[in-house]
Model the fold of this input.
Amino acid sequence: MTNKAATTTLQLIALRDPRSAASEAYRTLRTNIQFSSLDKPLRTLLATSTAPDEGKSTTIANLAVTMAQAEQRVILVDCDLRRPSLHTMFGLDNTEGLTSLMLQESSRIPAQPTEVPGLLVLTSGPLPPRPADILGSKRMEAVIARLREEADIVLFDTPPVNAVTDAAVLATKVDGVLLVFRSGSTKRDRAREARRLLDKVNANVVGVVLTDVKGEDRYSYYGS
Amino acid sequence: MELRHYFAILRRSWPLVVGLPLLVALATVAATFLLPARYATQVTMFVTQKPIATNQSSVVLPDYNNFNSWAASEYIVDDMLQLVQTQAFATDIAGWIKQQQNLELDPESIRQGLAAERTHRAVTVEIEADAKEHAQWIAQGVVAMLQEKGLAYWNRNDSAQLSVAVLDQPQEPGRAGGIVGLALDLILRTLLAFLLAVGLAFLRHYLDQTLHQRGDVEALGLEVVGAIPAAKGAKS
Done:
């Protein structure tokens, strides 16, 4: 196994090791999200963080896997048009993706199937010069509407909200926002700033996913 | 705050909590064997003021004489603890050794190696020196100076005299501290280092601005919908 493949395996733990404590934690996250808004089910959900390397892409990818494993039709969209990573994580081609769909009047959504039945990944595609303009455009709203038709839930991976405006722009167009913080890494003031930025655009913050938590594997014996 | 929260704080700083006491313990052991050895002995004695002799048969004060002798002895023993650590006393001992052994010892070094403690009227003088022979001679010098100069240290050159009764003669000097001393030293220093490390761990936690647990996030007014356990390689 190459290093890259090993990293991917570790990142998609919900797929590779469904009996692990982390996989169970993702299933709990799935349940919590499903029950967080019973009156108005979340159909589009965005994940962002305060800074790079907080586990946002890994979290949203594993969440997508667990949702698909629960027989939901899931489309995972890589809206990080600066440092896309989902294509690497799933081993997919990135010559065509979200930006292709945005820039061309194509009727076909270039989402690619994965080894998880029910899970499609729409990679970022070629990187544009001004990602925020693309994500905030009317065309993006139309794309989101189309994606909603094709899936039970659409998940979006975005850049850190404190770093660039992309996530805040897109947050206004989705049903909910997940904030991903890394235990022992995310600063309190940055977390407050992320919350303030999302509140400013009236985003519906569903909650926080805390990653890399020590001492959260107490149920692991139950599954392994 | 729950006990396990305290434990989590310590666990986050485990290299400090474990490393600092370990480092201190190693340093203590290393210092014991690497630094030049010191040798110690001690001498225990009763030091009292002799009753004032009187041949004035017309004066009958035997009871007062004895009483005054014991009362004065209390003050003398009290003062002994300071006396043995004075430069004057150390200089006298150095002179006595020079005279007896033709060996020159530094009075300041002698002074630093002397300490005394009292139990009732018994005084124990503890002597430490760089060599066994030095410790032995200094111990003998302590007794000799008290016997020879006596109350002259109090500037009492009248008829009053000191009586020095040696209870325990200086033993063959042994390595200062010994195994028990080293063990106690090691335990004490390691314990202090541990307490310091715990204090530093809590200070680090207090100054730490990063989020660690659910409670930290909830304190910001945000709901935690998921907590993913640590797994290597999970980055984005």
User: Anything to note?
Assistant: Chain A touches chain B through 52 residues (CB under 8 Å). Residues 134 and 140 of chain A are 7 Å apart (CA to CA).
